Amino acid sequence: MTDKPKRNRRALRAPRSGPSLSQVRDTAIVQFSMLLHAKPKETLDDLGWLLRDEYAGILAKVSLDQRVALARGYLISLGVQLDDLIAAAEVAAA
Predict the structure, then answer these.
(1) How far from the centroid of its chain's Cα atoms is residue 52's Cα?
(2) Residue 66, exposed/middle/buried by CB under 10 A (0-12, 13-18, 19+)?
(3) The whole model's pTM is what?
(4) Cα(69)–Cα(77) distance, integer angstroms
(5) What is the pLDDT of residues 15-34, one digit of tens each?
(6) Where are the domains of the chain?
(7) Which terminus has fewer CB within 10 Å in the chain: N or C?
(8) HSE-CB for 21 with a 13 A CA cutoff
């Protein structure tokens, strides 16, 4: 019985070219922050479109508890409280 040489899994992977996903994310956050500062309304609208476009993936990958926590954080960041949402819904229903 002969011993087979162990293969290095990293050696089997194709070499990466370009920046890492972490670097891309960091750059995107900086650029998004700059846009948010310069054009808050338009940038938040764009964020809403991105979230709607990724709806199925978000539901599949992010639990309801996590989505609720994120939504609470977004509302706090926007200065919106539950009472504001209820009042807006009542006005829309009238």
Answers:
(1) 11
(2) exposed
(3) 0.69
(4) 12
(5) 668 899 999 999 999 999 99
(6) 40-94
(7) N
(8) 0
